[in-house]
Task: inverse folding
């Protein structure tokens, strides 16, 4: 069986946590795209942003996303921006199915304010700035996330129901 599942959604929506659980339950390999970028670049995502800039990061992200072409099945947690650049979303849908892990901006804010130091796009932002950034970026990206094959609520994910989508 050939099954590639890509989880998409905003930073902090739970793509990696849910992706790991889903992969385990479906007995599929799990791929964390940010971790793969770090492994291949031998450098953290934060440092790629800092020293090479976002443009270089987005190029690497797209290349690494497409480097799993020969794998047959997996669950991949993508980065929050992945489907929004180049032809990445089109590529994802040429390979398999996507699931949008949907979360409201308030919940995203609550989660990100606790972990912002490890996230290069938000680590220097103060509270009000962070909320503004989330709301603005969300407005820009929502229409891309909404093109996913399936959508699940990030606060009430039911793994069994998600698995049924692929039966
Ligand atoms: C980004 C999200 C991050 C990571 C990078 C950029 C974004 O991934 O790819 O910091 O632009 O939303 P997570 O969504 O896994 O935090």
Result:
């Amino acid at each position: 069986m050939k099954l590639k599942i890509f989880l998409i959604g905003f930073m902090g929506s739970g793509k990696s946590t849910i992706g790991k659980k889903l992969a385990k339950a479906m007995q599929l390999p799990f791929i964390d795209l940010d971790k793969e970028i770090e492994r291949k670049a031998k450098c953290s995502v934060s440092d790629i942003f800092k020293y090479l800039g976002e443009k270089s990061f987005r190029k690497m992200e797209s290349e690494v996303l497409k480097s799993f072409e020969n794998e047959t099945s997996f669950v991949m947690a993508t980065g929050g921006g992945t489907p929004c650049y180049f032809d990445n979303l089109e590529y994802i849908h040429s390979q398999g199915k996507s699931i949008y892990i949907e979360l409201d901006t308030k919940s995203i804010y609550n989660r990100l304010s606790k972990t912002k130091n490890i996230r290069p796009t938000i680590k220097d932002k103060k509270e009000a700035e962070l909320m503004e950034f989330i709301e603005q970026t969300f407005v820009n990206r929502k229409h891309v996330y909404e093109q996913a094959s399936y959508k699940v609520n990030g606060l009430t994910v039911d793994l069994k129901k998600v698995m049924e989508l692929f039966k």
User: Anything to note?
Assistant: Residues 127-145 form the longest helix (19 residues).
